[in-house]
Input
Amino acid sequence: DAVVAGSDQIWRKVYVERYGIGTFFLDFLPESFKGKKLIYGASFGVDYEEYAPEDIAKIQPHYSQLDVVTVRETSALELLKSYGLDNPQAQVVLDPTLLLDKEDYIRVVNNANTTASVGNMFCYVLDMTDEKKKLLFSL
Output
């Protein structure tokens, strides 16, 4: 009945262009798809323009076919406006991680079937810099 894409940085060009710039604007759906097309809590991950005019040309026809678009930041509203992507009109919503209560997360952690790691640490860093590497490897 519907396809939903979202949320964090699904429109960040440097992260998604390997999949095709239109993927997270649902360009992969066949024209015969009659369900709703929804974007929840999307983010560009930056507050400056990354998309080139040729990117917008690829995105525009798919954006205009979306039924609902929501974003995580007001800066995303400004970017959409600067790109001429204003129909449908996007709205700012909560980050989806904030839609759950603390108890929901506690339940997930308590029900997790994992083995505790001893002496190891995992770090997920989106934009690695030399400064971040130095900090991580000095721990």
Remarks:
- DSSP finds five helices and four strands in the chain.
